Amino acid sequence: MKAEIITIGDEILLGQVIDTNSAWLGQLLDSLNIAVHQIVSISDNKDAILHALTEAAKRSDLILVTGGLGPTKDDVTKEAIASFFQTTLVRDEEVLRHVKSIFEKFGNGRAMPDMNYGQADVLACCDVLFNDVGTAPGMWIERDGKCFAFLPGVPFEMKFLMEKRVVPRLADYRAKVSIYHAHVVTMGIGESYLADLIGDIESELPAHIHLAYLPKLGTVRLRLTAMGHDEADVKKETDGFARQIAVRVEDYLVAEKDVTIEEAVVERFTKDNIRLAVAESCTGGLLAGSITAVPGASAMFDCGIVAYHNRIKQQVLGVDEEVLASFGAVSEQTVIQMAEGVKSLGGADYGIATSGIAGPSGGTPDKPVGTVWIAVSGPHETVTQLFHFRNDRQVNIERSMAQALNMLWKLYKKDNSK
């Protein structure tokens, strides 16, 4: 079964709202062995909707549409799809009672606006997907061997309808072929160097196993995707190739499953009873935030200090006033004392420090924008590195975070090998 996702809304096209619905739907469908072949975002107007549905019906078996089912005048999806299916809209009395009950419960005594009556209007040819958690019902239509599901764009409503109303209907359509993914996560090696390193293994992959390179700042995830009729055999064969790759990239290996670097750090440090503390200047607490966003981080994270002002570097982290006066806040000497200071303050095993000029202003001829010093202090030594990123502010910060985690992981692996 080939699936396609269509998201409707000018707010998505303008970048005002990030399309998280498609990502969630893609993961859900993958877990059901339903392959997504295309994702399309379109404007909330009749011509765009008609065109998208016409094209999707040519190439896909399952078309999931989110958004455009609201009560306001800019929501034209229902009129457009009624035209597409050459049918009419009818008022569903059960849905109307539900919509009214929500307004009675949360309307603070105010009458329901007339426009909300239209939320009970559904296509005459559809099966109504009753929405217990919102006012906009979904609609399910089967036509010419194609399945269409129209869902509200509000994420928690869309998820409810997919899990409770749509997924049960897909049981008869799911492929008998199993889809399996194996993952290898690396850090500290570029995509092209990684491809060269494992080129011979990649060339040995059979046709039913595909290797994808998924680069991100500081990391490259490798995903092996296999298809086959025997799930156990597919898993065994794919995991075997993943293990070969993991052994080959041992120096850069972070995990043999689909996790972020932060998740890998939290898991490994927790397992080894290792504590971490972070002192940040140019990254402004974002590094600590990325780690503590991982569930269970409290088992390994001691503290995070955002030491923007030199006074905080001195009074809280113990950086010498003479060091700051002689070398400046953005210097090797300063980040060493910041990393060692926060490690001591938190009673941690490892301390990370970042200090730099993220931009767009603040640079000097000697220390231009993008200059960043990072230090990682471990049980046996403190390592430092100077970076010249020369990007915009946000990218400089993200690169600083990625390199800090890379340095932490390398030092941890070195210490762990002793």
Describe the fold and architecture.
This protein has 418 residues and is an alpha/beta fold. The protein has 15 helices and 17 strands. Strands 2-1-3-8-7-6 form a six-stranded mixed β-sheet, sandwiched between helices. A five-stranded mixed β-sheet has the order 14-13-15-16-17, sandwiched between helices. Strands 10-11-9-12 form a four-stranded antiparallel β-sheet. The mean pLDDT is 94.
Count of DSSP E strands?
A: 17
Whole-number mean pLDDT = 94
Distance between the termini: 51 Å
Would you tell me the structural class of the helices and strands?
Answer: alpha/beta
Range of strand content: 15-25%
Count of DSSP H/I helices: 15
Radius of gyration: 27 Å
Q: What helical percentage do the residues reach?
A: 25-40%
3D shape:
globular
Largest sheet: 6 strands, mixed
Strand order of the largest sheet: 2-1-3-8-7-6
Q: Unreliable segments (pLDDT under 50, ≥5 consecutive)? A: none
Describe the structure concisely.
The chain is 39% helix and 25% strand. The chain is α/β, with parallel strands linked by helices. The longest helix is centred in the last third of the chain and has 24 residues, at 393-416.
